[in-house]
Design a protein that fits this description.
This protein is an alpha+beta fold. It has 2 helices and 5 strands, in the order H-H-E-E-E-E-E. The longest helix is centred in the first third of the chain and has 20 residues.
Length: 108
């Protein structure tokens, strides 16, 4: 069995290739009405995209919009690798981790 590389071990080029592959598979899954498969592939693409970003661009205590979830905001408490940990504003108060690729700076 071939061992796949972790996203953290991939080069920028490999990550971009993987993202394109995942998005194409997600598009096909969506066309076929495979909602769960589509969601999994979209999440994998978001994870791969997180490795193309610099975690230092995201600051604890800041509030970010959540990509793909209009009107939802996320307050970052701390970062661990490419994950921002914190909670959703107007959420249930449960701590959760989101890939930094899902966070968008708010226009001030």
């Amino acid at each position: 069995m071939i061992q796949e590389k972790r996203y953290s071990e991939m080069t920028e080029y490999e990550l971009k290739q993987e993202i394109a592959r995942l998005k194409e598979k997600a598009r096909k899954a969506e066309q076929l009405g495979m909602v769960n498969e589509f969601a999994v592939l979209e999440r994998k693409a978001a994870m791969a995209q997180a490795y193309l970003l610099d975690p230092n661009d995201f600051q604890p205590g800041e509030i970010y919009a959540i990509e793909g979830d209009p009107g939802s905001y996320f307050k970052v408490e701390y970062l661990n690798g490419v994950f921002a940990w914190g909670y959703r504003l107007n959420g249930d108060g449960q701590e959760e981790g989101l890939p930094i690729s899902l966070l968008k700076k708010l226009n001030k």
